[in-house]
Amino acid sequence: MKKITISADLEVYDSENELPQDVQSLMTQAIEAREKSYSPYSKFKVGAALFLENGEVITGSNQENASYPAGLCAERTAIFYAGAKYPGIKIEKIAISARSENHHVEIPTPPCGSCRQAIAEYEVKQEEPIEIYFMGEKGKVVKANSISDLLPLIFDNSYL
Ligand code: THU
Fold it and tell me: Which positions fall inside the CMP/dCMP-type deaminase domain (predicted)?
């Protein structure tokens, strides 16, 4: 038996104001998208903004459903739209922001497991990493250089 240690280097910014200008602008668009969330059940609003290699920004927010599992997270709403509208165009960066109508969200909110898997699929497809920035409604912002830092031991098409 031998042990494997898994580690990742993440960057933590004290606030969105510390981010590079282009990422700050992307985060602002994620925050705007967050306010368009349809989340009457959880009251948890999430927005995501993608920066594509062609300079386009695609945004998405979580869309809930009375049949709970039929809803979709903000990240996948945006990623699938980008894939549908601009097939073959790489996603360079994702910014994510979340807030709740019930409590303050000051801890950076990372993408859920299913969204990590979806982001991983696009990294594999485009053969380039995607920078991921996530925050709550205010406060610290965490940056990961690639989904592999948030989802180690990725299951991808090489196993099929
Ligand atoms: N949600 C997202 O939009 N993204 C995530 O990565 C985590 C969760 C949404 C799904 C649901 O509408 C609400 O947040 C509560 O889970």
Answer: 21-149
Report d(CA 82, CA 60) in Å as an integer.
10
Residues 30-45: tens digit of each pLDDT: 999 999 999 999 999 9
Instruction: Find the mean pLDDT for residues 74-101.
Output: 98
The CATH number of 10-151 is which of 3.40.140.10, 3.50.50.60, 3.40.50.300, 3.65.10.10?
Answer: 3.40.140.10
3-state helix, strand, coil in the chain (%, to 5): 30, 25, 45
Report how far ligand 1's centroid is from the alpha carbon of 143 (Å). Answer: 19
Q: Which residues are catalytic?
A: 75
- Our mutation pick for probing the ligand 1 site, out of 34, 46, 105, counting the most ligand atoms within 8 A of Cβ, is 46
